[in-house]
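Students often ask why we bother encoding 3D structure as a string. The short answer is that it lets us treat folding as translation between two languages. Here is a chain of 428 residues written in the first language.
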Amino acid sequence: MATLARQLAFRILLDVARGGTTLADRLAGPDVERLDRRDRALLHELVLGVLRHRGMLDSVLRPLTSRPFEGLDLRVREALRLGAYQLLRTRVPPRAAVSESVDLVRQAAPRASGLANAVLRRLERDGPPPSPSPEDDPLAWLTTEGSLPTWLAERWLARLGPQAAVARARAFLDVPPVAFRLNPRVQDAPHRVREAGLEPRPLAVPGAWEATAGRAAELAAAGVLYVQDQGSQMVARLAAGRGLALDACAAPGGKTTLMADLAGDEGIVIAAEVSGARMPDLRRLIHRWGCRNVRLARADANRPPFRGPFDAVLLDAPCSGLGTIGRHPDIRWRVRPEDLETQSRRQAGLLAALAPLVGGGGVLVYSTCSSEPEENEEPVEAFLRANHGFRTAALPDWAGPFAEPPYLRTRPERDRGDSFFAAVLERS
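And here it is in the second language, the structure alphabet:
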């Protein structure tokens, strides 16, 4: 019988494939939390690995099935992917990888257990076919070894060119680094980080560090550090300063707390969030971090209940999340091309709603964790054409490594981590 970790991994993959939940929410579920540390680590490895490499796994399994792979029962496909990932990308003994995956099929779709056994035994015996060459056939490589949906692979090839598209796909296949910042209220934070074995290395964004080892989660729970991609830290720094600031879409609170750290005693940050379900976690983070200059507000950024004027407004806009597919690999299979236009219209509406709150000489910082122009340059440029009182602001010196004037951008193939976009719009 399959182990509990594998049974849960199988269920989570099915839940995500059916669209009922996001991967992040599912991994935070109580059934996962009840696992011991070792089983939880195995579950995370299996689920994230299968989703991160699904394109490659499907390309390997497709020739081994007597029927079209996409026509198989979803439960059979997910069990085959789980077995193939263990055979090809882990040190799990092949016998366990095959037998436990077949057990999952036997429980979920008994008539297909013979097919599953034959496919995985053949893969164990013969190994995978050769991968396409990224130089000779970049599209084939991107959709198999690079594990991108065809529409996204074609888009990146057209916009970035073959070399950059392949480099970006490779970067998103790597397990992303653990980036973090320290709580300035914890005086011995640097000592505790070294003591926990994190081996910190400074990143290009001031105050951002990368952990190469150690127990970051324990220190985060204690309020010593906050795990946050350096692109996210870059965005918060652009909106930080003295005076009155608004984080218009604040949850989960990483940018809010960094803005509060940098504002000091002379600044106030209003953390606004429309989702009532996310407010408790936001409140807990602010309390754990010790921010006394943050005020929480349940508010919809489309209809902000504030009069202003604010010295800075941060719109970290809801987006497709395609810049985070290394960290959240389910997104690459969940997002559709039409979603980009939907998000773009939503982002344009948010910019228009928040702009009146910015005082003279103040800034409106627009950001996304997307890599796509429909969510980045296009809504910003449309906003500037319609709002002549705003212009792109000069970029700070520290942001030089990410500057693509007049905007800023982190690139995973260059900077590691996520792909963030930011525009600083100044009111005349």
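Translate back mentally: The chain has four domains: 4-126, 138-173, 178-226, 228-427. Keep this in mind for the problem set.
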